[in-house]
Specification:
It is a single chain. This protein has two domains: 57 residues, no CATH class; 193 residues, 3-Layer(aba) Sandwich (Rossmann fold), CATH 3.40.50. Helix 9 links the parallel strand 4 and strand 5. The chain has a five-stranded parallel sheet with strand order 2-1-3-4-5, with helices on both faces. Helix 6 runs parallel beside helix 8. The protein is of the alpha/beta class and 260 residues long. Helix content is 50%, strand content 9%. The protein is globular, with a radius of gyration of 17 Å.
Length: 260
């Protein structure tokens, strides 16, 4: 549902941020029984949506989300690795906080497409001075969160981010798009073919440019294009068991990227 990929803009409101944190925590509990209909119509989620709608009028890409944190980080040094993307990246920090220590920082914002992330890339990645960026985008492009996205438009956004990273001497871990058989917030969209096609291109592109490819589909997929039911509560976002399976893959990718 849309709430599952919304968030980030409410960080200036502690109450809303607490509500988002509680929602993400529920999504991360293996086997949680979530009434998405009731949750979506709750007053808390209505407040979150209202705050997001207001924020988008003045800051479409949510450049303000990490502005203060970036300033503090730059004042105290730099990041070794930046994870950037949408809700699956954002939720990872809450699912596995140990991963985001020792110079690894999380710059995920729920609901964002590759176009949003591209607009944030200088501020939330390059200016932090990392050696490596872990880039995961595509789920919300396939869902059409900001309107339809063609294959060429998706590729252009990814190529732009990778070329910006290369120009600043940053190694790239190009992540696969996690599998999804459908989107609860966009039930009319069939994403399986799009995700498979884009993942094939992402792998080829990473190889051509000499970057690392992190294939999470290998451990998350159910064999028919969706995510394994025992690893997700909504078919799109991994819960903690899913992130546990992703951890060895990202650790291998980080070792390869940092060694190079």
């Amino acid at each position: 549902m849309a709430l599952a990929v919304t968030g980030g803009g409410a960080a200036t409101d502690p109450t809303l941020e607490e509500e988002l944190h509680a929602f993400r925590e529920l999504m991360l509990v293996p086997g949680a029984r979530i009434d998405f209909g009731a949750l979506g119509s709750s007053q808390a989620m209505k407040r979150v949506r209202s705050a997001e709608e207001a924020r988008r009028l003045t800051d479409w890409a949510n450049l303000g989300r990490y502005r203060a944190g970036n300033h503090i980080l730059r004042a105290n040094g730099s990041a070794a690795v930046v994870f950037v993307g949408a809700s699956i990246i954002e939720n990872w920090a809450q699912a596995d906080p140990e991963l985001f220590t020792n110079g690894c920082v999380n710059r995920g914002i729920g609901g964002q497409t590759s176009a949003h992330v591209l607009l944030r890339f200088m501020a939330d990645v390059v200016r932090l001075g990392p050696r490596v960026v872990h880039l995961m985008v595509g789920t919300n492009d396939a869902a059409g969160n900001a309107g339809p996205v063609s294959d060429e438009e998706f590729r252009n956004n990814v190529v732009s981010m990778v070329e910006i990273a290369e120009a600043h001497g940053i190694r790239v871990i190009v992540s696969s798009i996690p599998p999804a058989g459908s989107f609860p917030w966009q039930p009319d969209v069939d994403p399986i073919g799009t995700i498979a096609r884009w993942n094939g291109w992402l792998r080829e592109f990473a190889d051509e440019r000499g970057h690392v490819y992190a294939d999470y589909v290998a451990v998350l997929a159910d064999g028919s294009g969706g995510m394994r039911a025992e690893l997700t509560n909504d078919g799109v976002h991994p819960h903690r068991l899913g992130y546990d399976l992703m951890r060895p893959i990202v650790e291998r990718a980080l070792r390869e990227a940092l060694d190079d």
